Amino acid sequence: MSFKIHILSPELSNKIAAGEVVQRPAAVVKELIENSLDAKATRISVIVKDAGKALIQVVDDGEGMSEQDASLAFRRHATSKIHSASDLEEIRTLGFRGEALASIAAVAQVELKTRTDSDDLATHIRIEGSETIEKSKSALERGTNITVRNLFYNTPARRNFLKTRHTELKNITDVIVRMAIAYPEVEWFYASDDEVMLDLKSQNVERRVAEVFGKSQFGSMFKFDDANELMTVNGFLGKPDFARKSRIEQFVFLNRRFIFSRMINHAVFQAYEHMLEKGSFPFFILNLTIDPKKIDVNVHPSKMEVKFENESNVYRIILSVVRKALAANDLIPSMSFRDGNAVSPFDVKFRFSEQAWKQGAIDQTGAPVFPLRPDIRSGEQSTPPTPHIIGLDDIRPSESNLESPLPFETSSSSLNRVLAQRSALDQSQMPESKPIWQAHNKYIISQIHNGLMIIDQHAAHERILYERVMANFENTLPSSQQLLFPETVDLGASDYSLVKELLPDLVHLGFDMRLFGKNTVVIDGIPADVRIGNEKKILQEVLDEFKNNEHTGVKDVRDNLAKSFACKAAIKAGDRLNVTEMVVLIEHLFLAKMPYVCPHGRPVIVRISLEELDKRFGRT
Ligand code: ADP
Ligand code: MG
Predict the structure, then answer these.
(1) 188, 398, 427, 576: which has the highest count of C-beta atoms within 10 A?
(2) Helix (H, G, I), strand (E, B) or coil at 501
(3) CA 33 to ligand 1 center in whole angstroms
């Protein structure tokens, strides 16, 4: 017979963060699963009834316990995982306190069946309120099977303290989901009141995450991997458009232990700065691996709080790793993170202020300076501004580009509307011009006080339109331009019923429409941003995009409609813009609440700092 468990000396057990471990069913589930994982199980099954109050059963195929260990396991401070005080300094197992089984056995009716490789028969023990009431032997596969019945049957006060069935079950599910993410190589089975909740085969981490969160959610995240002198960090980051209204989908695992760390959450949140709408939180899964000597898990009985040797160092590293990952996925408008430094890519404030503009002081604060010159201000065309950069033909404005007459043609005419609605700035007081170029009919390049700014014209216009539509939804009165001749549109049956469903919101958006029957609608007016003559096409495109977005998991109808419309009504890559159009676009972009990301979460602006340019040209 082999022995592994021993009782910790009072000196050592006194060093362990004291406190109750099993306050609710989810805590019992967590402790039992941790034991299975520490026993190197490859298959773990959890069965609960009545949200764990009637029954919690955890079965594993781990190393099991000998008869003697099985009896000792329920004693307080009985553990096989640490031996001396120095072991506390580098904990490599999930458990170490030797208290879980004792605590559980004190407040429930517990049945343990367990067998090791070297035993022929399994040990069978029944304990109620810490009293052993039966001991026997039975045949069983290697592993451990623990059944916990009638939790808190002898402590009615605690039983009454439990939350609703729904809440307790959700807590249990959360525990199991976290474990399943952290241990993808383990097979998991989880059933509640005979309903199978999870049934996961052993798989790699991508597949596990995809299976747990579902395909569409998985499509909105990307994997990343990093390593530095202190730790390795990998995991998954949600794209900004997939941000949540609460923090529940934020997972931090430290050496495969789920932990709560406000410090780490904050660092990640900080990395997403400027990319999220106010009040939303990024989705993330972070797996940190750190030398156990550099962390302390022994701070709270739940073992979910951890102290780091150097907190601010950890903060700095997480911030820069996540930023780097976002930048590598083109989600941050910055070029260089070579030093892994934690300087915000937005160390220069872009936000446009009318006041600053009028005072010509934007340059000082770092906001972009636009190429407004008297001749352009008045809407007339003139010779192009002289580019400051010599030899970069690609970004030099072409003559024809600047000569395109107003009002504009092609779909950039939608921008015409932007122009029409622009605030009446006192243009005579605008500062002297700085160059602005359109490159490849796709990007707008302009000088800012600390370098260059490149704007994706489609993404920028999309952001402007998206915010305008969302604001329109808030207004009581829809606004649209009336068509001289109402347009009849023949839609398919499914689009017709979609329009029927969306009609009030479409009207709010500016599509003044009536259902005409026989899958036909009549358009009387269109949103101000749509060019007349284009209404049929835009409506169809918006409906298609709406359906697309629905597929990819955009749940909110208005948000979806606004995104769809913004995408379809915005100027496209390939649309040629003249200087005035570019200026107006930039002006409106910086009046937006979130100028830095388009509604899909892609960057709108990329900044190249002078520093970066200097570095590249060896001017350091
Ligand atoms: P701890 O996990 O902190 O050591 P527990 O009270 O949870 O304390 O468990 C006591 C001991 O019982 C463990 O150290 C371990 O040796 C043994 N044990 C508990 N559960 C299992 C299991 N599922 N498989 C094998 N051994 C187990
Ligand atoms: Mg344990």
Answers:
(1) 188
(2) helix
(3) 10
Q: Is the CB of 105 under 6 A from ligand 1?
A: no
Is residue 75 lining ligand 1, measured as CB closer than 6 Å? no
Residue with the smallest CA separation from ligand 1 atom 24 is: 64
To 10 degrees, the CA torsion angle through 510, 516, 520, 521?
-10
Give the DSSP H or E segment for 275. none
Q: Where are the beta strands (DSSP E) in 74-230?
A: 78-79, 109-115, 122-128, 131-138, 143-149, 187-192, 195-200, 221-227
CA-to-CA dists, residue 129 to 97, 148, 319, 479, angstroms: 20, 11, 48, 71
**Beta carbons within 10 angstroms of residue 281's beta carbon:** 19
The pair of structure tokens assigned to 575 is 């649309």
Percent of the chain with pLDDT over 90: 49
Q: How far is the CA of 35 from the centre of ligand 1 (A)?
A: 5
Per DSSP, what are the bridge partners of residue 225?
234
pTM comes to: 0.62
Could you read off the pLDDT of 318-343 as tens digits, one per residue? Answer: 999 998 898 877 665 433 333 333 22
Bridge partners, residue 236, by sequence: 223, 285
Please give the number of the atom of ligand 1 that sits closest to the Cα of 5: 16
What is residue 106's predicted lDDT score, i.e. its pLDDT?
92
- Give the tens place of pLDDT for each residue, 232-291: 999 999 988 777 767 778 999 999 999 999 899 999 998 987 777 777 889 999 999 999
Distance 534 CA to ligand 2 centre (A): 67
Task: Give all domains of the chain, ordered by start, each with its CATH number.
Answer: 10-202 (3.30.565.10), 207-328 (3.30.230.10), 343-370 (no CATH), 373-620 (3.30.1540.20)
Q: Please give the full DSSP string across 304-348, using - where no structure is assigned.
A: ---EETTHHHHHHHHHHHHHHHHHHTT-SSBS--TT-----TTSS
**Nearest atom in ligand 1 to 74's CA:** 6
Which of 20, 35, 43, 119 should be mutated for ligand 1, with most atoms under 8 A from CB?
35
Ligand 1, atom 8: nearest CA belongs to which residue? 98
